[in-house]
Amino acid sequence: MSAKLANRIATVVIIAVAIFIVAILAGLLGYILVRGLGHVSWDFLTSVPQSIREGGGIGPQLFNSVFLLVLTLLITVPLGVGAGIYMSEYAKANRFTDFIRLVVEVLSSFPSIVVGLFGLLVLVHYFGLGYSLFAGALALTVFNLPLMVRITEQAIRAVPKEQKEASLALGLSRWKTITSIMLPIAMPNILTGTILASGRVFGEAAALLFTAGMSSPRLDFTNWNPFSSNSPLNPFRPAETLAVHIWKINSEGLAPDAAEIAAGASAVLVIVVLLFNFTARFIGGYIHRKFTASK
Amino acid sequence: MKERVTLDHPKEKISKQHLTEEWVGKIYTWLCIIVLIVTIFSMVYFVASRGLTTFFRGVNVWEFISGLRWQPDAKPPIFGALPFIFGSFSTSIMAALIAAPLGFCAAIFMTEIMPKYGRRYLQPVIELLAGIPSVVYGFVGLSIIVPFLRDTFPGQGLGLAAGAIVLSIMILPTITTIATDALSALPGGLKEGSYALGATRWQTIYRIVLPTTFPALMTGVVLGISRAFGEALAVQMVIGNAPFLPRSLFDSTSTLTSVITLSMGNTVMNSPHNNALWSLALILMLMTFVFVFIVRWLERRTKI
């Protein structure tokens, strides 16, 4: 076989593989949306699930997912940004810093089910939180923190050195320079990264099975007192999220329309994740244009 | 005299304010780092202490790892985890064998063949594939891949092959992203030298580009395997969950993660069955360390 023929065959194969991958995604999204969207209606999005009868919805699960995401971000963002600032600004090039890097790397490659088990043992049993939103949020924090640290560290490192030096030369303290000069400049990147991480958190289920629980109590959506047990805002109640719900009805669903509900819920989940993706892209692009005056 | 005092006063105030600010910053960032370190140490400690209980209570480590029978309800209960260990390794390695060629081709497409189309279409596609939640992959696997395998091959459809296929799509983004980064970081001179000698594009790719970036490509593959190894729900949904060694690719089996997912909720804390599940979690955790060290080793080779 001549070199030119081999070259041509290889090129064709590689292009075919690229098209194949695009086709996989198109097929996946198409399948989920076509099969699921038919089942999605306002009623489906707001009504409570049924265990044996058909016609159940995903209202509480959807609310739980969003609420859990908010709780998780409230804990993760301050911690992750702080640790990221440390890694980029305070860490010296020594063994201890290498060690922290190893910690972040190990933490980010822990299987999420192991994180869930850790949550079950320490948060649910040891600290007595029970299956609760709060335990779930802490487990997701463990799962999300390394990502957040990395995002912040990279964003802060990308801040032009001159800007930092100018601020220090004007007599601002190091911390003041970080918070009022570098963080605002790094904010677009941190924001984009956080939104992408949120998509990951929103779809996570394995870490939540044994922390936030697989059931949702009857919620009274008119009771907004966070301390009452049937209030949706109570962070110490068990909460099944959308992703966990999909898993549960696929493996042990008894309702006659379980497959349709799974399809509808998957479609909703995928749409939310796509929304997060597009928002991150849009915000990233918009701020990039604003800051660089490029088209 | 009086003037100096008025000048000194604000200066002192400013330096004091500086000091407080610096300390606030240092203490705050330190606290965050301490939280990180405490988290990892307590995770390792708790999982290890629970996971080792089985072995302290008379189960032989070797019998646990190499045993073929998993019968927690028998009297006395028998715990042999080999089917799960085999299931985890075989699904994740098969997934990598499927995903790696596809990922490398995608990376070559994006960097060497059509960079413009690659960045415009293929890259967002890869990012979206990375963003789709694992339960959705499980659901799609259950409703497309499993029926397809059931109709085409002997068996129930649920099994090793279904698990490997679902996992391969899930780890494709990891492998592709790292391969793309490695290929685009390659100095241009190498390729130009090859072209100048009259090599075709394919000759340049497989004689120059791929061998030079090999450690980095393998880093992506190992990270992919590590992700597949720890993936729980998607695999659990399609693998069939039979606690035996599979006899064929299309036979139902289990992985470490799938058996933990299924049984952990139904066992009582501190019962032998529960402890055995924690031992499986300990194996998962130890494998995570192994993967991290392989990745670090490969990364060191990349720099040379």
Task: Quickly list its features.
heterodimer, A: 295 residues, mainly alpha, 0% strand, globular, B: 304 residues, MetI-like fold, 12 helices, 2 strands, flat
What is the topological layout?
The complex is a heterodimer of chains A (295) and B (304).
Chain A (H helix, E strand, L loop, with lengths): L2 H35 L4 H5 L12 H32 L4 H15 L2 H15 L6 H25 L3 H9 L4 H30 L38 H11 L5 H35 L3
Chain B lengths: L1 H55 L4 H6 L3 E2 L6 E2 L2 H32 L1 H17 L2 H19 L7 H25 L3 H9 L4 H12 L1 H17 L2 H7 L16 H8 L8 H32 L1
What does this 3D model show about the protein?
The complex is a heterodimer of chains A (295) and B (304). The mean pLDDT of chain A is 85. Helices cover 72% and strands 0% of the residues of chain A. Chain A has helices at 3-37, 42-46, 59-90, 95-109, 112-126, 133-157, 161-169, 174-203, 242-252, 258-292. Chain B is mainly alpha-helical. Chain B has 2 domains: 2-51; 70-303, Orthogonal Bundle (MetI-like fold). Chain B has helices at 2-56, 61-66, 82-113, 115-131, 134-152, 160-184, 188-196, 201-212, 214-230, 233-239, 256-263, 272-303, and strands at 70-71, 78-79. Chain B has a two-stranded antiparallel sheet. In chain B, β1 (70-71) and β2 (78-79) form a beta hairpin. The longest helix of chain B is centred in the N-terminal third of the chain and has 55 residues, at 2-56. Chain B is flat. Chain B starts with a helix and ends with a helix. The model of chain B is unreliable at 1-7 (pLDDT under 50). Chains A and B meet through α1, α3, α4, α5 and α6 of A and α1, α3, α4, α5 and α8 of B.
Question: What's the gist of this structure?
Answer:
The complex is a heterodimer of chains A (295) and B (304). With 295 residues, chain A is mainly α. Chain A contains ten helices and no strands.
